[in-house]
């Protein structure tokens, strides 16, 4: 649906070259809600704006439905652009015009007949829940309402793609949630592919199925949201994931390890999906001669799949503890032992155990 092929963009200003995009290769499939995350200056906006040619790549190309839009004539491009809606962080609405006039603007510019415009605009306003504010001026609306108008204006031409430039960065958490829910609804009900840029991992968690992490104009990591959250590889990705799933070891646990019995054994378990449902803790306590205490837990939902971590203490003789650990691992749950300095974790792998569990 959208494909970036070796896409690069170099800006030249004051005799200097800035590589905003450096050989981007990404594929966004129909129906995706694809999130691009990165810090300020990573190149996200530039990437998004190459899709509707608000920016033209310096080299490489961007295909929309298999076509490089730079090859289109002006007329063809105007038509194609109706299929690509866009919403902005600061809404980009005309303050001197009403809600109705703002939403009608793309249709007016396309010279759609007046009665059709009225019908379509009211239909879209009904959909986004602002039918009764059609005559209000933009300055009379809240931030969330303004973004709804932005979404209505983007939807009015029946686009196939919606580009979202930090759509919730100017909104409070509650309003953010309602706007993200609306975008999800648009994606599902109209089958609109969404490409969204953000610097908030919470936004990615909330609605995206795929994510790409950008740094210095490059995509440093990309994949399914579940994959990236559960196994981030790059440092920047790990930092973003940690902003949502706090998986550092809490101070009180480190203190416990340092102050109490030095033989205390504390483990971090990482759960994905159905494993959370398994009451692994009580299962282990029943199967082996060990006591298990839950010390800390942090579980979130990712695309309706539970995901998170649990910090537990396992008490018992060494061999029983090792058998319990292997049992947990064989349940496809990542388990790591927390060292007394709290930063080092011993990662258990098959090799560490041999056949202890059956021994
Ligand atoms: N028109 C321009 N002229 C010169 N340099 C530009 C221009 N637009 C962007 N840049 C530079 O390109 C790089 C990428 O900018 P871009 O806005 O794409 O990043 P971003 O990840 O969207 O950042 P932010 O979240 O702050 O908007 C930055 O170094 C920026 O200063």
UniProtKB/TrEMBL annotation:
Pfam families: ABC_tran, NIL. One of its GO terms (molecular function) is ATP hydrolysis activity. Residues 5-241 form the ABC transporter domain. InterPro entries: AAA+_ATPase (IPR003593), ABC_transporter-like_ATP-bd (IPR003439), ABC_transporter-like_CS (IPR017871), ACT-like_dom_sf (IPR045865), MetN_ABC (IPR041701), MetN_ABC_transporter-like (IPR050086), NIL_domain (IPR018449), P-loop_NTPase (IPR027417). PROSITE patterns: ABC_TRANSPORTER_1, ABC_TRANSPORTER_2. Keywords: Amino-acid transport, ATP-binding, Cell membrane, Membrane, Nucleotide-binding, Translocase, Transport. It comes from the Bacteria. CDD domains: ABC_MetN_methionine_transporter. GO terms for cellular component: plasma membrane. One of its GO terms (biological process) is amino acid transport. Belongs to the ABC transporter superfamily. This is Methionine ABC transporter ATP-binding protein. It comes from Ureibacillus terrenus.
